[in-house]
Amino acid sequence: MKHEPLKVLLLSAEVVPFAKTGGLADVAGSLPKALRALGHDVRVAMPRYGRISPDKFELTEAVPRFPVPMEKQMEEASILQGLIAPDVPVYMVENPKYYDRDGIYMYPDDAERFIFFCRSALEMLHHLEWQPDVIHCNDWHTAIVPNWLKTVYKDDPFFRHTASVYTIHNLAYQGVFGYRVLEIAGIAEYGFMYHTEMADLAEVVDFMARGIYFADVLNTVSETYAQEILSPQFGEKLDPLLRDRRERLFGVLNGIDYEVMNPATDKYIAQNFDAGHLDARVKNKLALQQEANLKVDAATPLIGIISRLTDQKGFDILGDTIDHLLDMNLQFVVLGTGDPHYHELFSRVAQAYPGKAAIFLTFNAELAQKIYAGTDMFLMPSRFEPCGLGQMIAMRYGSVPIVRATGGLADTVKDFEPRTGEGNGFSFVPYDRWALFAAIVRAMESYKYQDTWHKLQVRGMTADFSWSASAKKYVELYRRAMEYHEAEPKRE
Ligand code: ADP
Predict the structure, then answer these.
(1) What are the pLDDT digits (tens) for 43-64?
(2) Which residues have any ligand 1 atom within 6 Å of their CB?
(3) Nearest CA to ligand 1 atom 19
(4) pLDDT, tens digit, 9 for 90 and up, residues 249-285
(5) Could you give the CA distance from residue 13 to residue 25 in angstroms, rounded to a whole number?
(6) Considering only CA atoms, which residue is closest to atom 24 of ligand 1?
(7) What does the DSSP assignment read for 273-329?
(8) CB under 8 Å to 137, separation ≥6 — which residues?
(9) What is the CA angle 334-338-343, rounded to 5?
């Protein structure tokens, strides 16, 4: 087994601090730093969206314009380079036609936009004369790469020793398109995918399925979710394929960036604090109550939510019970954007309970930190949750999580047991409004005993949710992928 430092190219549609809509961006911005700290040469690639300012991020030109095969013609890309850390470059694929728009996703030509990004990233490597040992692809946007490595690039000597790892951050977003996409990607001659238990697959191009099928190794972002997705309940119709590939499927829990997510140094919050100086924390609660127009009162329990407002996140069961909850002496602050009917739900609640419930329907990283630092509890009643970062960030900031025990939430939050004093939060199992209600009531009860509460907070704050352990697991996956790749027969 090779033990010298690895060369890894990580591909992601979003990367902190350049572009973010969810947890994928956090992972793409922080895992590479942790891998670099282990001595590996890690580089990241993403599109240069119009909203990423070259001046602000001091981007420099890495590769001047070069041709990229798209369908039957050549398009042009150039590469700008920024930095995630002093020794972790990020290559940004530049093409005004595809990326000079306000947003990141949700355009009718998204398939083409991400095919172009991926193809440019592979072609870029020739110009950089940098041959990665592993290309680490993430979610549907970059799932075409393992497919290409096993088809159009199969006999390209440049990629001969390049293995692929494919990470599923969320199986619910598969990137499903029509036949035309195969032509754009230059793989029409290889046709649709077939699977005896998945008749639909023969009629669509499902990028996620291709990543799963072609990658040398795949993983998802917690051990529990890796098991869950083998079942029809969580498998989003891809479970037969995942079961076929189960020997290559692993679960690696995401970490959080302990430099950025640090209540002792966070510049956004009213008062810095750490586990040894928890008394200072209350200033953040009072400042948050003020900013959110809630009744300013240190003693009233304050629950926070920071989330995409979608069905996945459990807001239907919360909606069914939130009026009962607000009859109690507690407060809610919600930060999120998403489905209009959840915007309406939370807006109604904020109006009905002035001083007790506040809603911010925006994406705001600064306010998010204030909520992590200022709330007593952090709620994630998810229907499913591949990993979840919110609960880990909340614990780091002394906000005690209340979660549904699924996926990564089950792996990180252990239900508090008053008799033994074990646990680090509150969790419930059935996806049910009364189970949610009961978990919140239990949290309220425990909150009355400030000594106990203090211990719960310290336990969360001193736990290790950093990347150090998980980055080592990724290195193992990379080496395993390289072994599988080398074991395959090659054409001379
Ligand atoms: P997902 O990737 O499914 O959206 P995660 O819990 O893995 O969920 O990651 C969500 C990340 O996005 C967390 O860092 C959370 O703080 C952040 N986030 C979500 N919504 C917002 C928002 N409206 N404003 C600021 N940050 C947000």
Answers:
(1) 999 999 999 999 999 999 999 9
(2) 22-23, 26, 306-308, 335-337, 363-365, 368, 387-390, 393
(3) 307
(4) 999 999 999 988 999 999 999 999 999 999 999 999 9
(5) 8
(6) 363
(7) --GGGGGGGHHHHHHHHHHTT----TTS-EEEEEEEESGGGTHHHHHHHHHHHHTSS
(8) 11, 143, 145, 146, 164, 165, 166, 167, 211, 215
(9) 55
